[in-house]
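Q: Hi! Curious about what Oxygen regulatory protein NreC looks like structurally. Here's the sequence.
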Amino acid sequence: MINRQLRVVLAEDSVVLRDGMVELLAARGCEVVATAGTAPELLAAVVRHRPQVAVVDIRMPPTHTDEGIHAAVEIRQKVPEVGILVFSQHVEATWASRLLADGASGIGYLLKERVARTSEFVDALHRVADGGTALDPEVVNQLMRTGQRSRVDSLTPRERKVLELMAQGHSNRSIAALLVVSERAVEKHVAAVFTKFGLRATDADNRRVKAVLTYLAENGS
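A: Let's find out. The predicted structure is below.
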């Protein structure tokens, strides 16, 4: 299956890495409509070009601390239709919590050293552009350690594993295959998570997203 072309804004302060990523994405059918080396340039490019996805590094000039993810949160607030894929060497749990506070739809957070193939990165871009979620397991672990421990600690090890896989954007069928259990068993674990987190079924609510975000509520408020 050939992926459709995506319009991407790429923020990366390393010129060599940025140019290499532009070539790789172009070879995979993505159109990099703008690149940015600083957070202000990123914000301006997103507002001007309205891409489907913005790829954001966390640490950018001038202080090389959290300018990139701070800009990602601002993009999320000002241009919510643009997907955000944080691509970094670092996990910033507090800012990630803020980025995810209003929902995980259209959000990704991948660690550079853990992406083994370009195809994985491009697949994540498409997932985020389609309103899905792409979270590295290590990011999920960090967020769970900094969130509402009481509710997470109420989960069994299997329920916690199912929640982690949900946070990575897996469907029940995919989770069942990964854990080598029946889809019905996964449904029971998911239902248990909803119950323990006090999430009631309504037509308007996405309980899967709310389950992932429940333990982030304190940091995201």
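A: A fun detail: The two ends are 41 Å apart (CA to CA).
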